[in-house]
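[audit] Reproducing an earlier prediction to check determinism. Same input, same settings, fresh worker. If the tokens differ from the archived copy the diff job will pick it up downstream; this log only records the rerun itself.
[audit] input (328 residues):
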Amino acid sequence: MSVYTHLSQTEVEHFISKYSLGKLVHYEGIAAGVENTNYFVDLKCNDNTTRYVLTIFEYLPHDVMPFFVSLTDLLADKALPVPKSLRDVSNQALHDLHGKPSLLQVCLAGKHSPIPNHEQCHAIGEMLGKIHQAATDCPLKQENQRGIAWLATQVERLTPLVSSDNAELLNKQLKRFQQFFDSVNIPQGIIHGDLFHDNALFTGDRITGIIDFYNACYDYWLYDIAVTVNDWCRQDSLVLDEVKTNALLKAYHDVRPFTKEERTAWPVILQFAAFRFWVSRLITFAHPEENSSHSTADNPVVNSKNPDEMRDLMLSHYDNAHLLVLPN
């Protein structure tokens, strides 16, 4: 993710000394993503060098972190390709850096696919279905920290800061989605919550890693699918690629069949997923105090994404609702 908290070599060496994993060879910040600080950390033990990822959580409080550790532990124990948090010599996974929670994990093999193909969309649909099924055993529950209540607060804050057209659209859509979720009845469970294509690693068309579970929570499975489809299957025209979308949805459906209620809700959930990320991206542009917790960083490396893309995707879904159909 973006580098907000800068670490000196001495700080990194002190941190990794708790693990007895080897000597620090190299470390570097990862300038990608939006919310957390990540570093590659290369450690040498005997003649072998292993790459790890050190994550500093810029927004998440310490008290919610055990959920994410337990979830990735559970999924890893079920042989799913997720990063299991490493324990230090005292069997502790969670640590503190600059007053913020932090974790060390093994860096998974593979690379991000810049433009996912049909086979990769099929693979991610199947993997998402497996994650949803496996996580039903998770003993902890975590509310969606960025659900409808959070969105209502953010829309209120953003209204005086954005254009009048955007302000009107934000409030209109918020009211519509609030009414929708008051009446919807579709299955829920643990979701990833942020399965954009840069949170999946591939070797060829085989998934070797699913990362960044820090938006995971208990919410609608269909919302998780919509977030994924909106990113993996979106064309430049903002119309979903039919072949990729069908491949992803069919692969998921083969693992966990869709319900009748989900088929009815699907077009609105797709629109809502775009709305959610439109709001979060607007915050980066229009609400600078949102990043005030990073003010101690010298020359932070911040990767912001264009909010208009998600707004226009939401509107495109309205125009193409007849194409938004789940498989039987």
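[audit] rerun output stored. Observation attached for the diff report: The two ends are 38 Å apart (CA to CA).
[audit] end
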